[in-house]
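Blinded run. Sample ID left blank on purpose so nobody reads anything into the name before looking at the predicted structure. Input follows.
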Amino acid sequence: MSGICPVLTKNITKVQAATKELNISFLTHTVDPKTDTVGRLKWYCENKKIDNSNWNFVTGDQKSIYEMGVLSYLVPNSEDALAPGGFLHSDKFILIDTKSRIRGMYSGTDSTEVERLIVDVRKLTQE
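Blinded prediction complete.
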């Protein structure tokens, strides 16, 4: 994983640690399923010592992943030879409630936004 991915991983790890007592889940979709096979994602998680108890990394059909990004998560994603890592994708962390509604979008590269996400996760679990 390249480009902004390492920063996003570091920051979602921070959110995960700050909310470890809550019953929540994290989901990361690859935008490069040709490279990010199940085995490669497993290796990445092991290499980064990611806690998979409530965090899943998923892959699938590229067209379906891109459509889901745009239609369900409302974020752009596409192959782009000029983008770092060869892919254009959002830096957004998306907070989704138990009814599959988007409750917030946060820049995963901005520490203030990441802190706001932690606060909002806590609020959402109190509803």
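Unblinding after everyone has recorded impressions. The longest strand covers residues 102-107.
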